[in-house]
């Protein structure tokens, strides 16, 4: 049984400035289940940070309701607009169960690694020696035991983020919010941090809300994805659904970047074969998920429709143990047969995007 740990309903966040009103979040409802790694993807300014800051009431919404772990943090009445919110004392206690990590780590530069992590335990009921043991245990978890007495300035970006993760975990949170936590890191370090987040999710059941402008990061760890644009969630689904059958143009763009297929299309489009397509030829992208990959579809196109497929690029990713493939192909054959072949591909759950030709 899945169980919601974060329920946001009809959230609006509107900022009023002197001359303008900014609707940063517009009527967003989102349910995050315990144990999810929920990726929220969008470009800068889409409203991602504002939305996740609503979860722990760092940002009070203009309208909507927030329930975290069964406790109502905030609710506005649909009719009267009257707002009720959790008491400050209760909120303080419950916020400790929601860890946060950020792009720029937010460490205290004058404090050692140990002191940075211990800082999060200042209100804890633990005795001093228990706090010490807890910090040591957290540093071991993020593989930084040997850096305990160093200062942030002596650490790499990845190491700083691991200190921030240890600090975020100090009060045994059930939820970790990661706000662009890998955006300032190189690809290798990014992967190490994402692997650590995945480990925290699988080994400790930590629920993670991952906000990012990089679908690549989401692809590595998330099981669910929401795409945000102009304050709204424009598309959502399981990672596989989103990668296999993106519906919105923006979602497609994110996926094309994450799978590098955008670069492949760009390069291949300049090839004479594509540049000078003959009549009856189309340049297309075929995407498929799971079992389809084992079927000899391409061979079937020739056998059943006399349509030949010249594969110019192929990429198979394994997402959540399921293969997801993309092919760039030139298909050629009799126009009617070609159309039937495309319908057949569609019937086999192969997503076909015609990039060029076929008019
Ligand atoms: N405190 C605030 N006062 C006024 N406007 C704000 C405030 N916070 C955010 N905004 C505006 O709300 C919109 C959404 O910002 P938000 O930071 O949530 O986007 P984002 O998707 O997280 O982008 P980024 O990754 O660049 O932070 C932007 O237009 C931003 O300028």
UniProtKB/TrEMBL annotation:
| Record domain ABC transporter: where | 8-255
* InterPro entries per UniProt: AAA+_ATPase (IPR003593), ABC_transporter-like_ATP-bd (IPR003439), ABC_transporter-like_CS (IPR017871), ACT-like_dom_sf (IPR045865), MetN_ABC (IPR041701), MetN_ABC_transporter-like (IPR050086), NIL_domain (IPR018449), P-loop_NTPase (IPR027417)
What keywords appear on the UniProt entry?
Answer: Amino-acid transport, ATP-binding, Cell membrane, Membrane, Nucleotide-binding, Translocase, Transport
Name of the protein in its database record: Methionine ABC transporter ATP-binding protein
Gene Ontology molecular functions: ATP binding; ATP hydrolysis activity
Species annotation: Leuconostoc litchii
Instruction: List residues traversing the bilayer.
Output: none
The record, for Pfam families, names: ABC_tran (PF00005), NIL (PF09383)
GO biological process terms held by the UniProt record: amino acid transport
Q: Which PANTHER family match?
A: AMINO ACID IMPORT ATP-BINDING PROTEIN, METHIONINE IMPORT ATP-BINDING PROTEIN METN
The protein's matches in CDD domains, at most eight in alphabetical order, are given as: ABC_MetN_methionine_transporter (cd03258)
**Source taxon at top rank:** Bacteria
Residues in the signal sequence: none
């Amino acid at each position: 049984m899945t169980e919601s740990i974060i329920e946001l309903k009809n959230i609006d966040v509107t900022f009023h400035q002197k001359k303008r009103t900014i609707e940063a979040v517009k009527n967003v409802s989102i349910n995050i289940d315990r144990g999810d790694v929920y990726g929220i993807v969008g470009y800068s300014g889409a409203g991602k940070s504002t939305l996740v800051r609503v979860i722990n009431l760092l940002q009070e919404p203009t309208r909507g309701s927030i329930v975290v772990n069964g406790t109502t943090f905030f609710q506005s009445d649909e009719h009267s607009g009257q707002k009720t919110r959790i008491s400050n004392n209760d909120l303080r206690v419950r916020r400790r169960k929601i860890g946060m990590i950020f792009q720029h780590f937010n460490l205290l530069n004058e404090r050692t690694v140990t002191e940075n992590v211990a800082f999060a335990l200042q209100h804890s009921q633990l005795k001093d020696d228990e706090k010490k043991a807890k910090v040591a245990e957290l540093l071991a978890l993020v593989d930084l035991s040997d850096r305990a007495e160093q200062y942030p300035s002596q650490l790499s970006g990845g190491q700083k983020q691991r200190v921030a993760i240890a600090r975020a975990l100090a009060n045994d949170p059930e939820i970790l919010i990661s706000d662009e936590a890998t955006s300032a890191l190189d690809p290798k370090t990014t992967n190490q941090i994402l692997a650590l987040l995945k480990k925290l999710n699988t080994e400790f059941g930590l629920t993670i809300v991952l906000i990012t402008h990089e679908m690549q990061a989401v692809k590595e760890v998330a099981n669910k994805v929401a795409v945000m644009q102009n304050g709204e969630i424009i598309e959502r689904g399981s990672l596989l659904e989103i990668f296999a059958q993106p519906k919105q143009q923006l979602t497609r763009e994110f996926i094309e970047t994450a799978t590098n297929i955008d670069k492949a299309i760009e390069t291949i489009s300049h090839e004479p074969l594509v540049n000078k397509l003959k009549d009856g030829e189309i340049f297309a992208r075929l995407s498929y998920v799971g079992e389809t990959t084992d079927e000899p579809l391409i061979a079937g196109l020739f056998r059943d429709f006399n349509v030949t497929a010249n594969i110019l690029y192929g990429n198979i990713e394994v997402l959540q143990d399921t293969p997801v493939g993309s092919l760039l192909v030139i298909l050629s054959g009799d126009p009617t047969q070609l159309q039937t072949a495309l319908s057949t591909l569609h019937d086999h759950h192969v997503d076909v995007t015609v990039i060029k030709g076929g008019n």
